[in-house]
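Continuing the batch. This is chain 6 of the set; chains 1 through 5 are on the previous pages. Same settings as before, nothing changed between runs. Recording input and output for traceability.
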Amino acid sequence: MAGVTGASIMPATVAAAHLESCAAALAGARITDQDDIATIVPILTRAQRQLAVALKNISLNAVGGQPRSVTLEGRVLEWTELSEVLTEAADAADSTADALEEALPFLEDADGDDTRS
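Output for chain 6:
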C-alpha cells in the first residue's frame, strides 16, 4: 500500500475535508488496545508520507506572498513565499513519517512482550 499516489476519484477539496474528519476522529479516539496501536501506527506512517507528497505537489502550483527567483545554470527558478512554506511543511511531514518508521520495530517486538492474561 505504500507509495499509492494514483489518480483520485474525488476532488482534492473533498479528499482534504475527509482527511481532516478522519484525523479529528483519531485525535478524539481512546486507543489503548495494543493490537489497534500496532495496526494504526504503520497506517499513519504511510498516510504521513502521502501527506508529504500532497503538500509538495500543492507547493508546485501555490501562488501567494512575495515572488522569488534565482538563476541556476542559466535557468530561472521561480517560487512564492507560500510555495516555500508548503515545501517546508512537506519536509516536516516527511520527517514525521521517518520518526514513525522508527517506532515500527518496537511494535513488532511488543507482540511477544504482552504478559497479561
